[in-house]
Amino acid sequence: MTILRALSTAIGRISTFRSYQIVLLLAAALAVVAFYYFGSENQNFSSTTKRIKQASHNANRNDADLSLDTRSFHQEEKTGAELDELKKTNDKESGSKQYHALMMFTKIDRSRSLQNKFQVAMRSMVKHGRFQEDEILVLHFVSDQPSQELGEQMLPELLLDVSFQYEVVFHDVAVLTEKLFPIVEAMQKHFSAGSGAYYSDAIFFLSVAMHRIMPAEMKHVVQLDLDLKYRTNIRDLFQEFNRFSAKAVIGIAYEMQPVYRHTFWQYRKENPKSPVGDPPPEGRPGFNSGVMLLDLEAMQRSTLYNQLLEPDQVARLAEKYHFRGHLGDQDFFTMIGMEHPELFHILGCGWNRQLCTWWREHGYGDVFQLYYRCDGPVYIYHGNCNTPIPND
């Protein structure tokens, strides 16, 4: 009724206005009609468009959106360009900051021991994990099909009490191995136990070349072993990226046994004054890959790091240090760390408190404690070589 009265009054006065005033008046009247029409039921153009987009988005999804429901189990089986596009879409829509954590999850279905370790790791991560409202922890699992199916069964229960937003992404181990093999093939003969051995598979060099095969949206990744127990908020581990020096591309802790004192024995014999293989703080004991921070952007930018991936450079350093290892990526990082320590940010031992004592009883008891000692708080226990992890 208000609109009709306004129009009636306007028409009654039309004869008194000039033509341009008539046009302005009619435009104003139409604007009033449009406002009331589109504004009915508390809707406007922006909110209506947003609802249509959201409805379309939800109609094309086959699973829950964990940015809205932190208790839901969200699975995406995408890699490469598909995952890249997915991350771009999620970031634009949610405005959330993502923290990426990756774990190797192969052959889990065959091992009760690995299943138990995984349960300890996930329950302790959930117990201590705290993130802000606009942050999401993205859990990446590199898996074969049987292990993925088992993981899909286990994770909803393990993540039931989570207090933060999360997503779960499974990566096909066969797909990633195919991408990795041309890059790391030359490394395997230097850092693998032999044909058919556990670390002879290309996938165990994933961290070495992750910057070349993962989506560009994944700028920082924390790679974690399954045999860990968290005693603090995993979000705090990601803050170590802020402490990287300008040349550092990887954050990693020292090996806490005299493994590389043994591996570099010939080089040490020929170079008795070298710090290679010596214990910290003055020595270079080598690295342990149970907890690693990978700055994928920095890895992409670093000319030096990418040169070290070339087969001739790998062979040159392996010959120089008389290096023959069997621990995959850990061996590679250790070897190039002897030559170029500036590429690495050293994590405190508390972020990867290794518990294995195998080398203490195998020829190195006299120096073992120099490597094994770890002062200060423990943030993550690492039960390597099947060592029991202490209870809280």
From TrEMBL:
A cellular component term (GO) from this record?
endoplasmic reticulum membrane
Molecular function (GO) terms for this protein are: xylosyl alpha-1,3-xylosyltransferase activity
Q: Which InterPro entries match?
A: Nucleotide-diphossugar_trans, XXLT1
One BP term from GO: protein O-linked glycosylation via N-acetyl-galactosamine
Which residues does UniProt assign to the signal peptide?
none
Domain of life (superkingdom): Eukaryota
**SUPFAM superfamilies recorded for this chain?**
Nucleotide-diphospho-sugar transferases
Q: What are the alphabetically sorted keywords of the record?
A: Membrane, Transmembrane, Transmembrane helix
Give the residue spans that cross the bilayer: 20-39
Q: Which PANTHER family does the record associate with it?
A: XYLOSIDE XYLOSYLTRANSFERASE 1
The name on file for this protein is Xyloside xylosyltransferase 1
Identify the species of origin.
Answer: Chanos chanos
Provide the organism lineage as a comma list: Eukaryota, Metazoa, Chordata, Craniata, Vertebrata
